[in-house]
């Protein structure tokens, strides 16, 4: 566990101990006739900010707001226990389809509420739905793609041998591939270890390859089939995935046989220290990159191109893993108090500043303008594609961690020369079908299939 994560967990533990005393202090200004809000939060790193918002809202409105945060790794067990109590949470967080399926019976439909109508189009598209009913409010948008160092790429572009004149010339996969291969060829002259960061296969880093990079073949197959869900995939664009994975294998600082020995911290350092020009990852990587050898103004993000027809019409991939839900079993007074509190968080100056600037979320509500965004240059780079009229690649739901683990094993065997590519294809296609079948058996429901919409 990293020092940063340890500090966050320790801080969360301290916050959890002091939570109830803070709530009690705020309750002196509370009016019991106005209902109350009990928020069970899953993110330990934002406990302090949430508690301050709760206390300030109580002081301002007289509505009691209590925030409890589960300790790391215990959220689902805590939520299950708390929802069974008479004083259950009036709102809680949902992350991913599996959590939604488990707790859907506790969630109130929100599509007719004022706060749901404040979501932007992508926010609404990523709300968990059953039929025409929407049950969650996404509150944190993140993006992932191919991060790049503009300074390195532009210095390369000045060389006589360069295949581009500036970083702005990289507008498709063919150009990106040519640049990476040429930079690798001239890496010594450029002072680089390699062109692109290692596609590490240590457990700390594999999510980039099996949770994110696989979303691209999935998205475009859904596009072709005009659907948002199926249990039967063809794997149409897995050859494109292979081409990008091979490009990373052949042009990174690490021998392919050593990929399992490289961690997330290792590959983050390769980019942060200026040893490579490209780094597939998401906006969250900024916390590891900043204050090293890459200036904020030199950070850019390309979409996750891999040569799929039509991909140039889309920007980086978006992911919405965090949503709020309202407890359907709460009293009408408490439900309204909860919806009012959420609306205040996403519309008041104090709430917006806390969510975007202090917690670092890009919040998918229309109340957030350009000035209400995180101070993260990667987020700025990703959001710029929307201003060009390019929709994000949507991160459609994947079935399970087991599905990802099976693909990781196949990638490892392939990279080390102990297996062929067909094992990865089988893990992707056959594993998709079998894992969803298991989910339906265990969870009792599957995502709904609707007409494809990029939003």
In short:
The chain is an alpha/beta fold.
Descriptive key words:
single chain, 455 residues, alpha/beta, D-Maltodextrin-Binding Protein, domain 2, 2 domains, eight-stranded mixed sheet, two-stranded antiparallel ribbon, 19 helices, 10 strands, 13% strand, globular, disordered N terminus, SBP, signal
N to C succession of SSEs: HEHEHEHHHEEEHHHHHHHEHEEHHHEHH
CATH fold name of the largest domain, please? D-Maltodextrin-Binding Protein, domain 2
What is the 3D form? globular
CATH homologous superfamily designation of the largest domain: Periplasmic binding protein-like II
Verbal overview:
By secondary structure, this protein is an alpha/beta fold. 45% of the residues lie in helices and 13% in strands. It has helices spanning 3-27, 47-61, 75-83, 97-103, 114-117, 121-125, 150-157, 173-185, 187-190, 207-212, 215-225, 238-250, 264-272, 286-289, 332-347, 349-358, 377-387, 401-415, 422-443, and strands at residues 36-41, 64-69, 91-94, 129-130, 133-134, 137-149, 278-282, 299-302, 314-326, 391-394. Strands 1, 2, 3, 6, 7, 8, 9 and 10 form an eight-stranded mixed beta sheet that branches. A two-stranded antiparallel sheet has the order 4-5. A hairpin with a 2-residue loop joins β4 and β5. It starts with a helix and ends in a 12-residue tail after the last helix. Mean pLDDT is 92; it is low at 1-27.
Summarize the helices and strands and which ones pair or pack.
Layout lengths: L2 H25 L8 E6 L5 H15 L2 E6 L5 H9 L7 E4 L2 H7 L10 H4 L3 H5 L3 E2 L2 E2 L2 E13 H8 L15 H13 L1 H4 L16 H6 L2 H11 L12 H13 L13 H9 L5 E5 L3 H4 L9 E4 L11 E13 L5 H16 L1 H10 L18 H11 L3 E4 L6 H15 L6 H22 L12
Parallel strand pairs: 1-2, 1-3, 9-10
Antiparallel strand pairs: 3-9, 4-5, 6-7, 6-8, 6-9
Helix pairs in contact: 1-2, 15-16, 18-19
């Amino acid at each position: 566990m990293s020092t940063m994560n340890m500090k966050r967990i320790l801080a969360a533990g301290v916050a959890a101990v002091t939570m109830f005393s803070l709530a009690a202090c705020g309750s002196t200004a509370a009016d019991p006739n106005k209902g109350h809000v009990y928020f069970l939060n899953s993110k330990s790193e934002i406990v302090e900010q949430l508690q301050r918002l709760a206390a300030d809202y109580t002081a301002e409105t007289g509505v009691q707001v209590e925030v409890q945060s589960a300790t790391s790794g215990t959220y689902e067990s805590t939520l299950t226990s708390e929802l069974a109590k008479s004083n259950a949470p009036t709102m809680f967080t949902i992350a991913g389809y599996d959590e939604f399926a488990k707790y859907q019976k506790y969630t109130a439909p929100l599509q007719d509420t004022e706060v749901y109508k404040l979501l932007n189009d992508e926010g609404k598209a990523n709300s968990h739905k059953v039929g025409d009913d929407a049950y969650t409010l996404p509150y944190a948008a993140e993006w992932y793609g191919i991060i790049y160092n503009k300074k390195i790429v532009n210095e390369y572009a000045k060389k006589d041998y360069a295949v581009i004149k500036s970083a702005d010339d990289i507008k498709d996969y063919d150009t990106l591939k040519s640049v990476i291969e040429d930079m690798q060829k001239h890496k010594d002259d450029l002072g680089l270890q390699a062109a692109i960061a290692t596609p590490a296969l240590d457990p700390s880093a594999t999510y980039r390859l099996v949770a994110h990079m696989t979303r691209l073949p999935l998205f475009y197959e859904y596009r072709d089939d005009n659907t948002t869900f199926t249990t039967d995939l063809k794997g149409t664009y897995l050859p494109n995935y292979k081409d990008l994975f091979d490009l990373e294998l052949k042009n990174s600082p690490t021998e392919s046989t050593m990929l399992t020995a490289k961690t997330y911290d290792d590959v983050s350092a390769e980019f942060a220290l200026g040893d490579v020009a490209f780094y597939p990852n998401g906006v969250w990587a900024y916390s590891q990159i900043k204050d090293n050898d890459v200036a904020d103004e030199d950070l850019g993000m390309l979409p996750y191109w891999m040569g799929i027809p039509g991909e140039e019409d889309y920007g980086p991939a978006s992911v919405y893993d965090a949503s709020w839900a309202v407890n359907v079993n709460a009293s009408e007074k408490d439900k309204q108090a909860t919806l009012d509190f959420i609306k205040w968080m996403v519309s008041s100056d104090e709430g917006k500043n806390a969510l975007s600037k202090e917690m670092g979320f890009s919040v998918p509500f229309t109340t957030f303008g350009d000035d209400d965004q995180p101070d993260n240059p990667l987020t700025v780079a990703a959001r710029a594609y929307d201003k060009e009229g390019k929709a994000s690649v949507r991160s459609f739901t994947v079935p399970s961690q087991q599905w990802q683990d099976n693909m990781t094993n196949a990638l490892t065997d392939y990279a080390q020369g102990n297996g062929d590519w067909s094992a990865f294809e089988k893990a992707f296609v056959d594993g998709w079908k079998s894992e969803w079948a298991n989910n339906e058996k265990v969870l009792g429901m599957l995502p709904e299939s609707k007409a494809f919409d990029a939003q």
